[in-house]
Design a protein that fits this description.
Blueprint lengths: L6 E6 L4 H8 L28 E3 L6 E8 L2 H8 L7 E8 L4 H6 L4 E3 L2 E3 L2 E5 L8 E7 L6 H8 L3 E10 L2 E2 L8 E4 L1 H7 L1 H5 L1
Parallel strand pairs: 3-9
Antiparallel strand pairs: 1-3, 1-11, 2-3, 4-8, 4-9, 5-6, 7-8, 9-10
Length: 196
């Protein structure tokens, strides 16, 4: 709106996947911007749709909070661990969760040569072999990070929900809905970005 940077909070779910997939293509492998919403024969073409990029990514089997913006530089800035923003998830796993494994994540972990930073993992509910809920908090968002860490401990992720990204919360936002973040709030949260 009027040259301002816009940010939307969206709830990603099954019905929202097609648009999220298109948003995720907004920046290609080499970082070149492409049209975010490509024509899909399953739905009518929307003229004048703005270019948008996602902040981070959610894979096909992950649901929850997704931030969208019309500014690629802002998207990259918000993805950097240097912002200090935590990403909080609810994770349902199958398998036996060992507290010692969860505690070991506080120092970070290396899996298949990839170093993951410190992760906070909290057992949420009483454990059963078929369903255990965890809260997982991390500061970086490497590709399939939570799934790979859980797999390392012989746990299979059956549900993954992003609840928060920095100061932004999923709350009771309905699936497929979007809510604009006021410009004032963005300027307060990331004043350093707007000074540069």
């Amino acid at each position: 709106a009027g040259g301002e940077i816009d940010v939307l909070l969206c709830r990603h779910g099954q019905g929202f996947h097609r648009d999220v997939k298109a948003v995720a293509r907004a920046f290609g492998e080499a970082g070149q911007q492409r049209r975010a919403f490509e024509h899909d024969p399953q739905r009518p073409r929307r003229k004048g749709l703005p270019r948008v990029v996602s902040v981070g990514r959610l894979d096909l089997n992950t649901e929850g909070l997704l931030l969208l913006t019309n500014d690629g530089a802002l998207s990259r800035h918000l993805e950097l661990p240097s912002t200090g923003w935590k990403r909080r998830y609810r994770v349902r796993v199958h398998g036996t969760v060992k507290q010692a494994d969860l505690d070991s994540l506080k120092k970070g972990i290396t899996i298949d040569g990839i170093k993951y930073g410190p992760v906070e993992a909290i057992l949420e509910r009483a454990q059963s072999a078929s369903n255990t809920w965890l809260t997982v908090i991390l500061r970086e968002g490497k590709n399939r990070e939570i799934r790979k860490i859980m797999e390392h401990f012989d746990l299979k992720v059956s549900r993954l929900i992003r609840l928060a990204y920095g100061p932004f919360l999923l709350g009771d936002l309905p699936e497929g809905a979007a809510k604009e973040v006021p410009h004032k709030v963005m300027r307060e949260q990331i004043a350093d970005f707007f000074k540069s």
